[in-house]
Amino acid sequence: MHNLFIGELADRLAKRQISSAELTQHFLGRIERLNPALNAMITLTAKQALADAAAADARLSAGERGPLLGIPLIHKDIFCTDGVRTSCGSRMLDNFVAPYDATVVARLKAAGTVMLGKSNMDEFAMGSSNETSYYGPVKNPWDTAKVPGGSSGGSAAATAARLTPFATGTDTGGSIRQPAALTGVTGLKPTYGRVSRYGMIAFASSLDQAGVFARSAGDAAAVLQVMAGFDPRDSTSVDVPVPDYSKALGQPLKGMKIGLLREFFEGLEPRNAALLEDALNIYTGLGAETLQVSLPHLPLSVPTYYVVAPAECSSNLSRFDGVRYGYRCENPKDLMDLYKRSRGEGFGAEVKRRIMTGTYVLSAGYFDAYYLKAQKARRLITDDFRAAFDKVDLVIGPTTPTPAFDIGAKMNDPVLMYLNDIYTIGANLAGLPGVSVPCGFVEGLPMGLQLIGPHFAEAKLLNAAHQYQQATDWHTHAPRGYA
Amino acid sequence: MSLTRQDVEKIAHLARLSITAQEMPVYVDSLSSIVNFVDELSRADTEGVLPMAHPLDGQHQRLRADVVSERDNHEKYQHNAPAVTAGLYVVPRVIE
To answer: What pairs with residue A213 in β-bridges?
Structure first.
């Protein structure tokens, strides 16, 4: 049952061959049995899940149908869930019970999904390995000595281990695509503004975007259909019509122009390069044309990101003051002591490092040299992408430089850790949609192929990923012990 | 460029973060290496380039009518507060 795709599950639910209650029990059982080795979950909501499943079954019995009606899911613990602890992977919010639902949560709830629980993540989504969580690292189901990637590592590991049919995530610099690649699942980051950020705890507001982990592009299309759309409660939500993503999946790729990002292929590890070569052959076999494109300013993307993101983080996280919600230190001697110790004790090391980086680049005397300079570099990078999309429909490259690395390997060198995001950050800086799909294995660990499209080209992107998955079976491989 | 302990103490104060004596050397080192890394930007030619404030061009901050859209939910919201008295957030005495 756990190896079925969402469409297959929906079909069986519609025919009443299975009930949502049975499906929910099945996945809760898998979580109970398999999650202790993975630590992918922060909070389980089993009781509410069974109640929601019963409600979905009632709707199904009444004749209602929907692509996600009665389907279980896991939410990244960055999305506010009314009445359920929303920790963001931090001691700061360990005791925080969200008083309302994020728009993403509300939309998926209305579609009849059943929340199994909230997934583990890097603290405040700051990390590329899921090791900065207050709740401990998540393990990669392909090899529990390896990281699952981050920051949405719990959602990725849970989807790969078939603890859920799908999961939500957020992507600020690669936090959906990178863990999707490292755990062998499909991860979609939509266009900035496509999915509402309301109720999604903010890290870097000009980069953050909600998306989905699923086991196929077809499944991701069904989920995006529900998540996407204008929301007046998010001032950066964009009022652009939402196309029928599932309908777009049948388009032949004949004549599609796919750009090979020269900067992504230069110096690529040979086994990673060989997998991409195979993928390109698949695409040419499907009738697509591949041509070289260049993003000359791409080498600036990681330093640009590590100015812009920490700057926005330092501003966003100033709301955690030990006064209105969240952690408060013991016996503060005055208000300043309360602020400093509540924040000093409530935040973990990486979060404090990013707040301080951001504070520094925004401080008097440094603003022009760092923040303003980075925003200019950001335009150069965005203009490079725009020029590339004048020539091609989509661009293609690897999602990560290497497969999953050992837990602990990069924790003492933040710059080394930041370079993990080298292929994913560009899409965030330019606000572009990107998808990572499994494309093979290096040393028994999954690798991802990344497709990036112009703004609002999710339909084209998902179709290109879907056509690839029709011609290959990498996305059907399950980690040993989880099949 | 390398940050000094005094630089990091000043940044931590601006960010309202207490940093313990044991943690301090780690932050001096790691923040210095991050600042060195992002200093690569100084080599980029950005002459005449407009800084980008929003990933989607042509998007403007939307305005809405100035009407009440939320109900009073302070009791629910204050459930998460560390200390509340009579609907007010309690902090250490500020004025003697």
So the answer is: A167, A187
CA A178/CA A144 separation, integer angstroms: 17
Contact A136, A150 (CB under 8 A): no
The confidence band for A471, taking pLDDT boundaries of 50, 70 and 90, is very high
Residues of chain A contacting B46 with CB distance shorter than 8 Å: 373, 376-377, 380
As a whole number of angstroms, the longest Cα–Cα distance in chain A is 70
Measured distance CA(A51)–CA(A443) in Å, rounded: 43
Cα distance between residue A21 and residue A442, in whole Å? 38
| Segments making up each domain of chain A, as ranges | 6-254+451-476
pLDDT in tens, A217-254: 999 999 999 999 999 999 999 999 999 999 999 999 99
**Total structural domains within chain B:** 1
Under a CB-based contact definition with an 8 Å cutoff, are residues A141 and A183 in contact? yes
Determine whether the interchain pair B52/A379 forms a contact, defined as Cβ–Cβ distance below 8 Å. Answer: yes
- CA A44 to chain CA centroid, Å, is 20
Length of chain A measured in residues: 483
> Quick check: B22 contacting A, CB < 8 Å?
no
Name the superfamily (CATH) of residues A6-254+451-476: Amidase signature (AS) domain (3.90.1300.10)
CATH of the domain at B31: 1.10.20
The residue in chain A having the minimum alpha-carbon distance to the alpha carbon of residue B93 is: A334
CA A70/CA A60 separation, integer angstroms: 8
Each residue of A190-215: pLDDT tens digit? 999 999 999 999 999 999 999 999 99
Model pTM score: 0.97
